[in-house]
Protein backbone atom coordinates (compact mmCIF):
# COMPACT_ATOMS: atom_id res chain seq x y z
CA UNK A 1 0.00 0.00 0.00
CA UNK A 2 1.42 3.40 -0.96
CA UNK A 3 1.32 5.68 2.04
CA UNK A 4 -0.57 8.92 1.65
CA UNK A 5 1.66 11.67 2.94
CA UNK A 6 0.64 14.86 4.68
CA UNK A 7 1.37 16.77 1.50
CA UNK A 8 -1.06 14.60 -0.44
CA UNK A 9 -3.68 15.11 2.23
CA UNK A 10 -3.36 18.89 1.87
CA UNK A 11 -3.58 18.63 -1.89
CA UNK A 12 -6.69 16.50 -1.81
CA UNK A 13 -8.17 18.66 0.92
CA UNK A 14 -7.66 21.80 -1.15
CA UNK A 15 -9.36 20.17 -4.16
CA UNK A 16 -12.36 18.81 -2.28
CA UNK A 17 -12.65 22.02 -0.27
CA UNK A 18 -12.81 24.21 -3.35
CA UNK A 19 -15.43 21.96 -4.90
CA UNK A 20 -17.56 22.27 -1.78
CA UNK A 21 -17.19 26.05 -1.67
CA UNK A 22 -18.09 26.27 -5.37
CA UNK A 23 -21.13 24.04 -4.92
CA UNK A 24 -22.19 25.91 -1.81
CA UNK A 25 -21.88 29.36 -3.42
CA UNK A 26 -24.03 28.30 -6.35
CA UNK A 27 -26.63 26.52 -4.25
CA UNK A 28 -26.89 29.53 -1.92
CA UNK A 29 -27.54 31.58 -5.08
CA UNK A 30 -24.55 33.82 -4.38
CA UNK A 31 -23.13 32.68 -7.74
CA UNK A 32 -25.36 32.17 -10.76
CA UNK A 33 -25.60 28.54 -11.96
CA UNK A 34 -26.04 29.79 -15.53
CA UNK A 35 -22.51 31.26 -15.55
CA UNK A 36 -20.74 29.00 -13.08
CA UNK A 37 -22.57 25.66 -13.21
CA UNK A 38 -21.90 23.31 -10.26
CA UNK A 39 -19.50 20.46 -9.54
CA UNK A 40 -22.40 18.08 -9.02
CA UNK A 41 -23.98 18.93 -12.40
CA UNK A 42 -20.60 18.67 -14.09
CA UNK A 43 -20.05 15.30 -12.50
CA UNK A 44 -23.48 14.10 -13.60
CA UNK A 45 -22.83 15.35 -17.13
CA UNK A 46 -19.53 13.49 -17.27
CA UNK A 47 -21.21 10.32 -16.05
CA UNK A 48 -23.90 10.72 -18.65
CA UNK A 49 -21.32 11.16 -21.41
CA UNK A 50 -19.33 8.19 -20.33
CA UNK A 51 -22.44 5.98 -20.12
CA UNK A 52 -23.92 7.13 -23.42
CA UNK A 53 -20.58 6.36 -25.01
CA UNK A 54 -20.62 9.08 -27.65
CA UNK A 55 -17.71 10.73 -25.88
CA UNK A 56 -15.25 7.97 -26.73
CA UNK A 57 -15.37 8.87 -30.41
CA UNK A 58 -14.50 12.51 -29.59
CA UNK A 59 -11.79 11.48 -27.20
CA UNK A 60 -10.17 9.07 -29.62
CA UNK A 61 -10.17 11.64 -32.41
CA UNK A 62 -8.50 14.25 -30.21
CA UNK A 63 -6.09 11.59 -29.02
CA UNK A 64 -5.10 10.57 -32.53
CA UNK A 65 -4.65 14.19 -33.59
CA UNK A 66 -2.55 14.93 -30.52
CA UNK A 67 -0.38 11.87 -30.92
CA UNK A 68 0.20 12.43 -34.64
CA UNK A 69 1.13 16.07 -34.11
CA UNK A 70 3.38 15.13 -31.23
CA UNK A 71 5.20 12.35 -33.05
CA UNK A 72 5.65 14.23 -36.32
CA UNK A 73 6.47 17.55 -34.70
CA UNK A 74 9.07 16.20 -32.30
CA UNK A 75 10.52 13.84 -34.92
CA UNK A 76 10.98 16.67 -37.38
CA UNK A 77 12.16 19.07 -34.70
CA UNK A 78 14.75 16.73 -33.24
CA UNK A 79 15.96 15.59 -36.66
CA UNK A 80 16.34 19.06 -38.09
CA UNK A 81 17.71 20.37 -34.80
CA UNK A 82 20.46 17.74 -34.82
CA UNK A 83 21.23 18.36 -38.45
CA UNK A 84 21.47 22.14 -38.15
CA UNK A 85 23.48 22.04 -34.94
CA UNK A 86 26.07 19.84 -36.61
CA UNK A 87 25.97 21.68 -39.96
CA UNK A 88 26.51 25.33 -39.06
CA UNK A 89 26.55 26.48 -42.69
CA UNK A 90 23.04 25.24 -43.36
CA UNK A 91 21.96 26.91 -40.14
CA UNK A 92 23.31 30.28 -41.27
CA UNK A 93 21.27 30.04 -44.47
CA UNK A 94 18.06 28.96 -42.75
CA UNK A 95 18.24 31.00 -39.56
CA UNK A 96 16.19 34.05 -40.68
CA UNK A 97 13.46 31.79 -42.05
CA UNK A 98 13.26 29.80 -38.85
CA UNK A 99 12.97 32.98 -36.81
CA UNK A 100 10.32 34.39 -39.14
CA UNK A 101 8.22 31.22 -39.04
CA UNK A 102 8.46 30.99 -35.31
CA UNK A 103 7.30 34.60 -34.99
CA UNK A 104 3.90 33.78 -36.55
CA UNK A 105 1.21 33.30 -33.91
CA UNK A 106 0.11 29.78 -34.72
CA UNK A 107 -3.62 30.40 -34.25
CA UNK A 108 -3.77 32.50 -37.40
CA UNK A 109 -2.59 29.48 -39.35
CA UNK A 110 -5.68 27.49 -38.33
CA UNK A 111 -8.04 28.97 -40.97
CA UNK A 112 -5.44 28.47 -43.67
CA UNK A 113 -4.89 24.85 -42.70
CA UNK A 114 -8.65 24.32 -42.69
CA UNK A 115 -8.73 25.77 -46.20
CA UNK A 116 -5.88 23.55 -47.35
CA UNK A 117 -6.63 20.35 -45.53
CA UNK A 118 -10.36 20.51 -44.89
CA UNK A 119 -12.34 20.16 -41.67
CA UNK A 120 -10.96 16.70 -40.86
CA UNK A 121 -8.08 15.64 -38.68
CA UNK A 122 -5.25 16.63 -41.01
CA UNK A 123 -5.71 20.37 -40.50
CA UNK A 124 -5.57 19.88 -36.70
CA UNK A 125 -2.48 17.75 -36.93
CA UNK A 126 -0.82 20.35 -39.13
CA UNK A 127 -1.55 23.06 -36.59
CA UNK A 128 -0.15 20.89 -33.78
CA UNK A 129 2.97 20.12 -35.78
CA UNK A 130 3.78 23.80 -36.29
CA UNK A 131 3.51 24.30 -32.54
CA UNK A 132 5.47 21.24 -31.49
CA UNK A 133 8.16 21.40 -34.14
CA UNK A 134 9.77 24.64 -33.01
CA UNK A 135 9.84 23.63 -29.39
CA UNK A 136 11.57 20.34 -30.15
CA UNK A 137 13.81 22.02 -32.67
CA UNK A 138 15.06 24.83 -30.41
CA UNK A 139 15.59 22.53 -27.46
CA UNK A 140 17.53 19.98 -29.48
CA UNK A 141 19.60 22.69 -31.10
CA UNK A 142 20.37 24.33 -27.77
CA UNK A 143 21.24 20.98 -26.20
CA UNK A 144 23.75 20.18 -28.93
CA UNK A 145 25.35 23.61 -28.63
CA UNK A 146 25.85 23.14 -24.92
CA UNK A 147 27.57 19.77 -25.05
CA UNK A 148 30.55 19.94 -22.71
CA UNK A 149 33.57 20.60 -24.96
CA UNK A 150 35.94 18.68 -22.69
CA UNK A 151 33.78 15.56 -22.81
CA UNK A 152 33.60 15.96 -26.55
CA UNK A 153 37.37 16.32 -26.87
CA UNK A 154 37.87 13.30 -24.63
CA UNK A 155 35.57 11.15 -26.78
CA UNK A 156 37.41 12.28 -29.88
CA UNK A 157 40.77 11.43 -28.33
CA UNK A 158 39.38 8.00 -27.45
CA UNK A 159 38.73 7.47 -31.15
CA UNK A 160 35.03 8.22 -31.67
CA UNK A 161 33.87 8.63 -35.26
CA UNK A 162 31.27 11.24 -36.19
CA UNK A 163 28.36 8.86 -35.89
CA UNK A 164 29.73 7.48 -32.62
CA UNK A 165 30.01 11.02 -31.27
CA UNK A 166 26.37 11.57 -32.18
CA UNK A 167 25.26 8.37 -30.49
CA UNK A 168 27.48 8.37 -27.40
CA UNK A 169 27.97 12.08 -26.71
CA UNK A 170 25.59 14.44 -28.49
CA UNK A 171 22.36 12.49 -28.06
CA UNK A 172 22.73 11.51 -24.41
CA UNK A 173 23.96 14.96 -23.53
CA UNK A 174 20.98 16.51 -25.30
CA UNK A 175 18.52 14.00 -23.83
CA UNK A 176 17.64 16.28 -20.94
CA UNK A 177 16.77 19.14 -23.25
CA UNK A 178 14.85 16.90 -25.62
CA UNK A 179 12.88 15.33 -22.80
CA UNK A 180 11.99 18.66 -21.28
CA UNK A 181 10.77 19.68 -24.72
CA UNK A 182 8.66 16.51 -24.87
CA UNK A 183 6.77 17.50 -21.77
CA UNK A 184 5.78 20.90 -23.15
CA UNK A 185 5.32 19.43 -26.61
CA UNK A 186 2.56 17.15 -25.39
CA UNK A 187 0.77 20.21 -24.07
CA UNK A 188 1.26 22.04 -27.35
CA UNK A 189 0.05 19.08 -29.38
CA UNK A 190 -3.13 19.07 -27.32
CA UNK A 191 -3.50 22.82 -27.83
CA UNK A 192 -3.09 22.39 -31.59
CA UNK A 193 -5.71 19.67 -31.74
CA UNK A 194 -8.24 21.30 -29.45
CA UNK A 195 -7.90 24.81 -30.85
CA UNK A 196 -8.18 23.41 -34.37
CA UNK A 197 -11.32 21.52 -33.42
CA UNK A 198 -12.71 24.52 -31.62
CA UNK A 199 -12.30 26.73 -34.67
CA UNK A 200 -13.93 24.35 -37.11
CA UNK A 201 -14.60 20.63 -37.09
CA UNK A 202 -17.28 18.02 -36.54
CA UNK A 203 -15.69 15.96 -33.78
CA UNK A 204 -13.23 16.01 -30.89
CA UNK A 205 -13.02 17.59 -27.43
CA UNK A 206 -12.58 21.07 -28.85
CA UNK A 207 -15.69 20.60 -30.96
CA UNK A 208 -17.59 19.40 -27.90
CA UNK A 209 -16.62 22.48 -25.92
CA UNK A 210 -17.46 24.78 -28.82
CA UNK A 211 -20.88 23.12 -29.16
CA UNK A 212 -21.66 23.55 -25.47
CA UNK A 213 -20.51 27.14 -25.57
CA UNK A 214 -22.72 27.81 -28.59
CA UNK A 215 -25.86 27.00 -26.58
CA UNK A 216 -24.59 28.64 -23.33
CA UNK A 217 -24.27 25.21 -21.73
CA UNK A 218 -21.74 26.09 -19.03
CA UNK A 219 -21.93 22.62 -17.54
CA UNK A 220 -20.92 21.12 -20.88
CA UNK A 221 -17.96 23.50 -21.20
CA UNK A 222 -16.69 22.62 -17.74
CA UNK A 223 -17.22 18.92 -18.32
CA UNK A 224 -15.24 19.15 -21.56
CA UNK A 225 -12.48 21.05 -19.78
CA UNK A 226 -12.35 18.44 -17.04
CA UNK A 227 -11.91 15.70 -19.59
CA UNK A 228 -9.18 17.75 -21.26
CA UNK A 229 -7.30 18.14 -17.97
CA UNK A 230 -7.46 14.42 -17.22
CA UNK A 231 -6.37 13.70 -20.79
CA UNK A 232 -3.26 15.94 -20.49
CA UNK A 233 -2.40 14.63 -17.02
CA UNK A 234 -2.38 11.05 -18.31
CA UNK A 235 -0.16 11.92 -21.27
CA UNK A 236 2.13 13.88 -18.98
CA UNK A 237 2.60 10.96 -16.61
CA UNK A 238 3.55 8.76 -19.58
CA UNK A 239 6.27 11.25 -20.56
CA UNK A 240 7.33 11.30 -16.92
CA UNK A 241 7.92 7.56 -16.97
CA UNK A 242 9.92 7.82 -20.18
CA UNK A 243 12.02 10.60 -18.68
CA UNK A 244 12.79 8.60 -15.56
CA UNK A 245 13.90 5.68 -17.68
CA UNK A 246 16.14 7.64 -20.05
CA UNK A 247 17.74 9.97 -17.51
CA UNK A 248 18.53 7.27 -14.96
CA UNK A 249 22.19 8.33 -14.88
CA UNK A 250 21.45 11.76 -13.48
CA UNK A 251 22.05 12.70 -9.87
CA UNK A 252 18.64 12.68 -8.24
CA UNK A 253 17.24 15.97 -7.06
CA UNK A 254 18.28 17.98 -10.10
CA UNK B 1 69.49 16.25 -25.79
CA UNK B 2 69.66 14.82 -22.35
CA UNK B 3 67.75 11.74 -23.36
CA UNK B 4 69.77 9.05 -25.09
CA UNK B 5 66.69 7.07 -26.22
CA UNK B 6 64.70 7.52 -29.40
CA UNK B 7 62.30 10.43 -29.50
CA UNK B 8 58.57 9.86 -28.96
CA UNK B 9 57.33 13.44 -29.21
CA UNK B 10 59.26 16.37 -30.50
CA UNK B 11 58.05 19.98 -30.38
CA UNK B 12 59.86 22.52 -32.48
CA UNK B 13 59.37 26.25 -32.15
CA UNK B 14 55.77 25.97 -30.99
CA UNK B 15 53.99 29.30 -30.70
CA UNK B 16 50.30 29.54 -29.80
CA UNK B 17 48.28 32.75 -30.01
CA UNK B 18 44.67 33.28 -29.05
CA UNK B 19 43.80 36.44 -30.97
CA UNK B 20 46.27 39.08 -29.79
CA UNK B 21 47.28 37.07 -26.76
CA UNK B 22 50.39 34.96 -27.09
CA UNK B 23 50.11 32.01 -24.74
CA UNK B 24 53.38 30.20 -25.46
CA UNK B 25 56.24 31.33 -27.65
CA UNK B 26 58.84 29.32 -29.43
CA UNK B 27 58.81 26.28 -27.20
CA UNK B 28 60.89 23.31 -28.24
CA UNK B 29 61.45 20.09 -26.35
CA UNK B 30 61.43 16.39 -26.74
CA UNK B 31 60.11 13.41 -24.84
CA UNK B 32 62.03 10.20 -25.35
CA UNK B 33 60.54 6.76 -25.70
CA UNK B 34 59.68 5.48 -22.26
CA UNK B 35 60.62 8.77 -20.65
CA UNK B 36 58.60 10.40 -17.88
CA UNK B 37 58.71 14.17 -18.27
CA UNK B 38 57.05 16.90 -16.21
CA UNK B 39 56.09 20.41 -17.24
CA UNK B 40 55.89 22.86 -14.36
CA UNK B 41 55.07 26.53 -14.43
CA UNK B 42 52.87 29.14 -12.81
CA UNK B 43 49.13 29.07 -13.46
CA UNK B 44 48.03 30.32 -16.88
CA UNK B 45 51.47 29.90 -18.42
CA UNK B 46 50.22 27.56 -21.14
CA UNK B 47 50.78 24.03 -19.83
CA UNK B 48 47.37 22.75 -20.87
CA UNK B 49 47.74 24.58 -24.15
CA UNK B 50 50.91 22.66 -24.90
CA UNK B 51 49.23 19.34 -24.13
CA UNK B 52 46.34 20.22 -26.45
CA UNK B 53 48.87 20.94 -29.16
CA UNK B 54 50.59 17.58 -28.65
CA UNK B 55 47.19 15.85 -28.65
CA UNK B 56 46.36 17.51 -31.96
CA UNK B 57 43.27 19.20 -30.52
CA UNK B 58 44.78 22.64 -31.02
CA UNK B 59 46.67 23.78 -34.07
CA UNK B 60 49.71 25.85 -33.10
CA UNK B 61 50.10 29.26 -34.69
CA UNK B 62 53.55 28.21 -35.78
CA UNK B 63 55.97 25.40 -35.14
CA UNK B 64 55.94 21.70 -35.71
CA UNK B 65 55.20 18.51 -33.81
CA UNK B 66 56.64 15.18 -34.67
CA UNK B 67 55.46 11.95 -33.10
CA UNK B 68 57.76 8.99 -33.59
CA UNK B 69 59.52 11.06 -36.22
CA UNK B 70 56.41 11.72 -38.27
CA UNK B 71 54.77 15.11 -38.63
CA UNK B 72 51.52 15.07 -36.63
CA UNK B 73 48.39 16.06 -38.52
CA UNK B 74 44.94 16.13 -36.95
CA UNK B 75 44.33 14.17 -33.75
CA UNK B 76 47.42 12.44 -32.47
CA UNK B 77 46.54 8.76 -32.55
CA UNK B 78 49.54 7.75 -30.41
CA UNK B 79 48.31 9.73 -27.49
CA UNK B 80 46.12 9.10 -24.47
CA UNK B 81 45.05 12.36 -22.83
CA UNK B 82 43.91 12.64 -19.22
CA UNK B 83 42.25 16.05 -19.12
CA UNK B 84 42.56 18.57 -16.33
CA UNK B 85 38.77 18.85 -16.08
CA UNK B 86 36.29 16.01 -15.61
CA UNK B 87 35.91 14.33 -18.98
CA UNK B 88 34.09 11.08 -18.22
CA UNK B 89 30.77 10.52 -19.95
CA UNK B 90 28.30 11.26 -17.12
CA UNK B 91 25.62 9.03 -18.68
CA UNK B 92 27.76 5.92 -18.67
CA UNK B 93 28.75 3.75 -15.73
CA UNK B 94 32.39 3.43 -14.68
CA UNK B 95 32.58 0.13 -16.54
CA UNK B 96 31.14 1.52 -19.77
CA UNK B 97 33.32 4.60 -19.49
CA UNK B 98 36.41 2.42 -19.42
CA UNK B 99 35.08 0.21 -22.23
CA UNK B 100 34.10 3.08 -24.50
CA UNK B 101 37.42 3.41 -26.35
CA UNK B 102 37.26 -0.27 -27.32
CA UNK B 103 33.62 0.15 -28.33
CA UNK B 104 34.71 3.03 -30.57
CA UNK B 105 37.18 0.59 -32.14
CA UNK B 106 34.39 -1.89 -32.91
CA UNK B 107 35.46 -4.41 -30.26
CA UNK B 108 32.40 -6.54 -29.36
CA UNK B 109 30.64 -5.17 -26.27
CA UNK B 110 31.08 -8.36 -24.28
CA UNK B 111 34.82 -8.41 -24.78
CA UNK B 112 35.20 -4.67 -24.22
CA UNK B 113 33.39 -4.96 -20.88
CA UNK B 114 35.53 -7.91 -19.91
CA UNK B 115 38.71 -5.92 -20.46
CA UNK B 116 37.22 -2.85 -18.80
CA UNK B 117 36.52 -4.92 -15.73
CA UNK B 118 40.15 -5.96 -15.56
CA UNK B 119 41.31 -2.36 -15.92
CA UNK B 120 38.96 -1.12 -13.24
CA UNK B 121 40.46 -3.72 -10.93
CA UNK B 122 43.94 -2.58 -11.92
CA UNK B 123 43.23 0.99 -10.84
CA UNK B 124 41.70 -0.27 -7.60
CA UNK B 125 38.01 0.16 -8.42
CA UNK B 126 36.79 -3.41 -8.32
CA UNK B 127 33.15 -3.38 -7.29
CA UNK B 128 32.44 0.11 -8.64
CA UNK B 129 31.55 -1.09 -12.15
CA UNK B 130 27.99 0.12 -12.04
CA UNK B 131 28.59 3.50 -10.43
CA UNK B 132 27.91 6.61 -12.47
CA UNK B 133 30.57 9.34 -12.39
CA UNK B 134 28.48 11.56 -10.12
CA UNK B 135 28.51 8.75 -7.55
CA UNK B 136 32.32 8.59 -7.47
CA UNK B 137 34.77 10.75 -5.53
CA UNK B 138 37.26 13.01 -7.29
CA UNK B 139 40.08 10.52 -6.89
CA UNK B 140 37.94 7.66 -8.14
CA UNK B 141 36.97 9.64 -11.21
CA UNK B 142 40.64 10.23 -11.99
CA UNK B 143 41.26 6.49 -11.69
CA UNK B 144 38.41 5.74 -14.08
CA UNK B 145 39.82 8.35 -16.44
CA UNK B 146 43.22 6.71 -16.27
CA UNK B 147 41.78 3.25 -16.94
CA UNK B 148 39.71 4.70 -19.79
CA UNK B 149 42.94 5.74 -21.47
CA UNK B 150 45.28 2.92 -20.51
CA UNK B 151 42.91 0.25 -21.85
CA UNK B 152 43.74 1.56 -25.32
CA UNK B 153 47.43 1.09 -24.62
CA UNK B 154 48.67 4.40 -26.02
CA UNK B 155 52.39 4.82 -26.56
CA UNK B 156 52.28 8.33 -25.16
CA UNK B 157 50.39 9.51 -22.10
CA UNK B 158 49.47 13.15 -21.51
CA UNK B 159 48.37 13.96 -17.98
CA UNK B 160 47.14 17.40 -16.98
CA UNK B 161 47.35 17.97 -13.22
CA UNK B 162 45.65 14.66 -12.54
CA UNK B 163 46.11 14.74 -8.80
CA UNK B 164 45.92 18.44 -7.98
CA UNK B 165 42.44 18.22 -6.49
CA UNK B 166 43.24 15.36 -4.12
CA UNK B 167 44.26 15.40 -0.49
CA UNK B 168 47.87 14.63 0.31
CA UNK B 169 47.40 11.00 1.36
CA UNK B 170 45.26 10.01 -1.61
CA UNK B 171 47.66 11.88 -3.77
CA UNK B 172 50.73 9.96 -2.60
CA UNK B 173 48.82 6.76 -3.03
CA UNK B 174 47.82 7.58 -6.58
CA UNK B 175 51.31 8.80 -7.46
CA UNK B 176 52.77 5.50 -6.34
CA UNK B 177 50.12 3.61 -8.27
CA UNK B 178 50.88 5.62 -11.35
CA UNK B 179 54.57 4.79 -11.01
CA UNK B 180 53.74 1.13 -10.61
CA UNK B 181 51.55 1.12 -13.73
CA UNK B 182 54.16 3.07 -15.67
CA UNK B 183 56.89 0.67 -14.58
CA UNK B 184 54.98 -2.18 -16.25
CA UNK B 185 55.42 -1.01 -19.81
CA UNK B 186 57.21 2.33 -19.68
CA UNK B 187 55.09 4.59 -21.81
CA UNK B 188 56.30 8.05 -22.64
CA UNK B 189 54.58 10.40 -20.22
CA UNK B 190 54.16 14.15 -20.38
CA UNK B 191 52.92 15.17 -16.96
CA UNK B 192 51.71 18.68 -16.20
CA UNK B 193 51.67 19.92 -12.63
CA UNK B 194 51.84 23.01 -10.46
CA UNK B 195 53.57 21.06 -7.84
CA UNK B 196 57.33 20.93 -8.13
CA UNK B 197 57.69 18.26 -5.45
CA UNK B 198 55.38 15.99 -7.38
CA UNK B 199 57.27 16.65 -10.59
CA UNK B 200 60.64 15.81 -9.08
CA UNK B 201 59.36 12.74 -7.24
CA UNK B 202 57.76 11.19 -10.30
CA UNK B 203 59.75 12.07 -13.35
CA UNK B 204 63.02 11.70 -15.22
CA UNK B 205 63.12 15.27 -16.39
CA UNK B 206 61.45 18.53 -15.43
CA UNK B 207 60.73 21.35 -17.88
CA UNK B 208 60.11 24.79 -16.40
CA UNK B 209 57.91 27.28 -18.25
CA UNK B 210 58.09 31.00 -17.58
CA UNK B 211 55.09 33.06 -16.51
CA UNK B 212 52.68 34.08 -19.29
CA UNK B 213 52.04 35.83 -21.58
CA UNK B 214 54.40 34.45 -24.19
CA UNK B 215 55.81 31.75 -21.92
CA UNK B 216 59.07 30.24 -22.91
CA UNK B 217 60.98 27.24 -21.75
CA UNK B 218 63.12 28.52 -18.86
CA UNK B 219 65.04 25.44 -17.96
CA UNK B 220 65.33 21.73 -18.21
CA UNK B 221 66.45 19.52 -15.34
CA UNK B 222 67.33 15.86 -15.38
CA UNK B 223 66.30 14.05 -12.21
CA UNK B 224 68.98 11.52 -11.34
CA UNK B 225 66.95 9.68 -8.69
CA UNK B 226 66.94 5.90 -8.87
CA UNK B 227 63.82 3.80 -9.55
CA UNK B 228 61.63 2.24 -8.35
CA UNK B 229 60.71 5.13 -6.10
CA UNK B 230 58.32 5.65 -3.28
CA UNK B 231 57.07 9.21 -3.65
CA UNK B 232 56.63 9.81 0.05
CA UNK B 233 60.03 8.47 1.07
CA UNK B 234 62.05 9.96 -1.73
CA UNK B 235 60.96 13.43 -0.69
CA UNK B 236 63.02 13.05 2.46
CA UNK B 237 66.32 12.23 0.75
CA UNK B 238 69.09 14.83 0.49
CA UNK B 239 69.39 14.41 -3.23
CA UNK B 240 65.71 15.17 -3.72
CA UNK B 241 65.96 18.30 -1.62
CA UNK B 242 69.00 19.45 -3.51
CA UNK B 243 67.35 19.08 -6.93
CA UNK B 244 64.17 20.61 -5.65
CA UNK B 245 66.05 23.63 -4.35
CA UNK B 246 67.86 24.08 -7.64
CA UNK B 247 64.66 24.09 -9.73
CA UNK B 248 62.68 26.09 -7.21
CA UNK B 249 65.29 28.81 -7.44
CA UNK B 250 64.22 29.36 -11.05
CA UNK B 251 60.52 28.59 -10.72
CA UNK B 252 60.02 30.87 -7.74
CA UNK B 253 60.76 34.00 -9.73
CA UNK B 254 58.24 33.01 -12.37
CA UNK B 255 55.53 32.23 -9.86
CA UNK B 256 56.09 35.62 -8.22
CA UNK B 257 55.93 37.33 -11.61
CA UNK B 258 52.70 35.57 -12.45
CA UNK B 259 51.32 36.46 -9.05
CA UNK B 260 52.24 40.11 -9.49
CA UNK B 261 50.49 40.19 -12.88
CA UNK B 262 47.30 38.57 -11.79
CA UNK B 263 46.59 39.85 -8.30
N1 LIG C 1 40.68 28.87 -26.08
C1 LIG C 1 41.32 29.92 -25.55
N2 LIG C 1 41.03 31.16 -25.96
C2 LIG C 1 41.67 32.23 -25.44
N3 LIG C 1 42.63 32.16 -24.52
C3 LIG C 1 42.98 30.95 -24.06
C4 LIG C 1 42.34 29.76 -24.55
N4 LIG C 1 42.88 28.70 -23.92
C5 LIG C 1 43.82 29.20 -23.08
N5 LIG C 1 43.88 30.55 -23.17
C6 LIG C 1 44.79 31.41 -22.43
O1 LIG C 1 46.10 30.91 -22.59
C7 LIG C 1 46.82 30.96 -21.37
C8 LIG C 1 47.33 29.59 -21.03
O2 LIG C 1 46.24 28.76 -20.68
P1 LIG C 1 46.45 27.26 -20.16
O3 LIG C 1 45.12 26.70 -19.88
O4 LIG C 1 47.32 26.54 -21.12
O5 LIG C 1 47.25 27.51 -18.80
P2 LIG C 1 47.79 26.45 -17.75
O6 LIG C 1 49.25 26.63 -17.68
O7 LIG C 1 47.28 25.11 -18.07
O8 LIG C 1 47.13 26.98 -16.41
P3 LIG C 1 46.64 26.15 -15.13
O9 LIG C 1 47.86 25.70 -14.41
O10 LIG C 1 45.87 27.14 -14.32
O11 LIG C 1 45.81 25.01 -15.64
C9 LIG C 1 45.88 31.54 -20.34
O12 LIG C 1 46.19 32.91 -20.18
C10 LIG C 1 44.52 31.39 -20.94
O13 LIG C 1 43.69 32.46 -20.57
MG1 LIG D 1 45.92 23.85 -17.24
User: Which regions of chain B contain 5 or more consecutive residues with pLDDT less than 50?
Assistant: none
| Average residue pLDDT of chain B | 92
Secondary-structure content class of chain A: mainly alpha
Ligands, ions, cofactors: adenosine-5'-triphosphate, magnesium ion
What is the CA-based Rg of chain B, rounded? Answer: 18 Å
The main β sheet of chain A shows up as:
none
> CATH top level of the domain at 1-78 and 195-263 in chain B?
Alpha Beta
Strand order of the largest sheet of chain B: 6-7-8-3-9-10
Specify the CATH architecture of the domain at 1-78 and 195-263 in chain B.
3-Layer(aba) Sandwich
- In DSSP terms (H or I, runs of 4 or more residues), the helix count of chain B works out at 8
Q: Write the H/E string of chain B, N to C.
A: EEEHEEEHHHEHEHEEHH
Q: CATH fold name of the largest domain in chain A, please?
A: MetI-like fold
Number of strands of chain B: 10
Main sheet makeup of chain B: 6 strands, mixed
How would you name the oligomeric state of the polypeptide chains in this document?
heterodimer
Helix content of chain A: over 70%
How many strand elements of chain A? 0
Mind sketching the topology for me?
The complex is a heterodimer of chains A (254) and B (263).
Chain A: H1 6-27, H2 33-36, H3 39-52, H4 54-86, H5 88-103, H6 109-117, H7 121-145, H8 149-157, H9 162-199, H10 205-214, H11 218-246
Helix pairs in contact in A: 3-11, 4-7, 4-9, 4-10, 6-7, 7-9, 9-10, 9-11, 10-11
Chain B: E1 7-18, E2 21-32, E3 36-40, H1 47-55, E4 62-67, E5 70-71, E6 79-82, H2 94-104, H3 109-122, H4 138-150, E7 156-160, H5 168-185, E8 188-193, H6 196-202, E9 205-209, E10 217-222, H7 231-234, H8 238-262
Parallel strand pairs in B: 3-8, 3-9, 6-7, 7-8
Antiparallel strand pairs in B: 1-2, 1-4, 4-5, 9-10
Helix pairs in contact in B: 2-3, 2-4, 3-4, 6-8
Amino acid sequence: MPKISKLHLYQIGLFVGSLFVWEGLVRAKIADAFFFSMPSSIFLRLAEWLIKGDIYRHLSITFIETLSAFVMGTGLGIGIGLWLALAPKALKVLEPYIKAFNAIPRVVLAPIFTLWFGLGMISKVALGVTLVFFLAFFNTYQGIREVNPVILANARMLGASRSQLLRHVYLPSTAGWIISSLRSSIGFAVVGAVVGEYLGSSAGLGYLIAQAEGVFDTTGVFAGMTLLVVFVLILDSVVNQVERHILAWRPSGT
Amino acid sequence: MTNPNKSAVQLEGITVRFGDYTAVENVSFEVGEGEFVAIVGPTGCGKSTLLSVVAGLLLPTSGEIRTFNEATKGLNRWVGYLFQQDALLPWKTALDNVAIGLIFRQVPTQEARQQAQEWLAKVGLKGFENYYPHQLSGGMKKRVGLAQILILNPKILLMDEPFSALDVQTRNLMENELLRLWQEDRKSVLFVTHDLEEAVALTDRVLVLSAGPASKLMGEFTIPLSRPRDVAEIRLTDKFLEIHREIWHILRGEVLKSYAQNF
